[in-house]
Amino acid sequence: MALKLIIVVAVLLAGAAAVTSCPPTDREALLTFRSALREPYLGIFNSWTGYDCCHGWYGVSCDSLTRRVADINLRGESEDPIFEKAGRTGYMTGTISPAICKLRRLSSIIIADWKGISGEIPSCITSLPFLRILDLIGNKLSGPIPAGIGRLQRLTVLNLADNLITGTIPASLTRMSSLMHLDLRENRISGELPREFRKLGMLSRALLSRNRISGTIPSSISNIYRLSDLDLSLNRLSGQIPASIGKMAVLASLNLDGNLISGQIPVALLGSSVSILNLSRNSLDGKIPDVFGPRSYFTSLDLSYNKLKGPIPISMLEASYIGHLDLSHNHLCGKIPAGSPFDHLEPPSFVFNDCLCGKPLKTCQ
Questions:
Q1: Top-confidence residue, 299 or 84
Q2: What digits encode the pLDDT tens for the residues 121-141?
Q3: pTM for the full predicted model
């Protein structure tokens, strides 16, 4: 009788464990994903043992109701005790296995800052219907952004920065109506910016610096109402700055430095909501618009290394605040205005112009 009771209890416990643990298919997919990676220093995969991948598997979490794997969060730079104990950041090689796409309930994939993970982004990732975060920053991933990336209609964060990604920005990306944060910095992306950028109506940050992007800046970008941070620096963009960018309601940071942009500085840009404006190292010409006023507030204004001419606008004295200012390496001429912000600036802000004079440079004759 006692033996039968033990057997019954064992069966009930096994059944309960089966209900509360992750499905065998999810466990198998995770183990296949792990087998394509090599992490020699921290042992983060040592915990990936046993049948229940929902408990105790480092970087894995599951939905409390379905018990399906919902998040993979593996960061190579973290304050987790496992990193503090090892006294180092993470390093991992290998590739991202397509087996990850079998985890159909994934909400977030974070495989970030491992420095050595290579290969291409599995195209099947675009078939994960619940994915909200895809963060693969800081690896050595190559190849193109999957062409079908636009199928990820719930994605809010796409971070592929600091990799070796090539090809163009897929046209389908502009169909990601929920996207809020786009970071493609420091890759080898070429081609032009999609003309339909304006469709990304929820976008608040677009960071695409240090690539090989060419063509002109689409004026449709100015239709993205929530965009507050736009960084297109260190690319190969040409043409003029769309005047409509100066009318964007919440744009606070605009970095266009290190391109081939020509034409004049849009008047509206200097009286806009932008507080960090970097237009340096382009081919901008004409005069600096004399339109500064109480609405002009710049923590940083950099117009250096252009072809700007004429005097420094006297209206700069009316700006509510200008912190860092760099007008060097242009063709400016005339007396530097006296007063704030000029009274706290040093010579490097004004050097290598045609004939500027006055404090902090030499006295005007």
A1: 299
A2: 999 999 999 999 999 999 999
A3: 0.92
